[in-house]
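Subgroup meeting minutes
Present: P.N., E.W., G.H.
Scribe: E.W.

1. P.N. recapped why we're keeping a running log of single-chain structure predictions: easier to compare across weeks, and new members can see raw inputs and outputs side by side.
2. G.H. added today's entry (155 aa).
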Amino acid sequence: MPYTIRYHFSQSFAVSARKAYLWCTDFTPEDHALMGEDNVERQVMHLTDSTVVLKEIFHTSNGDIEKQKLVQFYPDRLSWVSTHLTGPNKYSQFIYEVSAEGNNASRLNFTALHIEHEKEIMTKTDIKLLAGKLCKYDSKAWKLLAKAMEKELNK
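Output recorded in log:
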């Protein structure tokens, strides 16, 4: 039985909200390297001006894991939604919203709906622990992305 794991966090950026949104939604095959992941291949397929499909292959010691994500952009709201179509997190959905905090500062508000298919039985404590672990992992990745963004955009 799948379980719903919810978590959220915020990440500050030392760039304007518009610049942050444009940088975050400019997907490239090299994005995972910014997060310290060198074992990932990514293809970016543009379906429409507001929709992309990301195909990612993670090379692990247990074999390759393929994920496909549908990403919908909402530029007027400086937000995007990523839905996992395949892979171990199938049907999980992640909401990203950038908001202004002054002329040259912004904040990403990240909301996760992680669907856990791997575990057969999870207690409320297990769910809480997994939510904390996933939140820590994603938050750490966004700290690295924020650093890369600020370095690139504040030259």
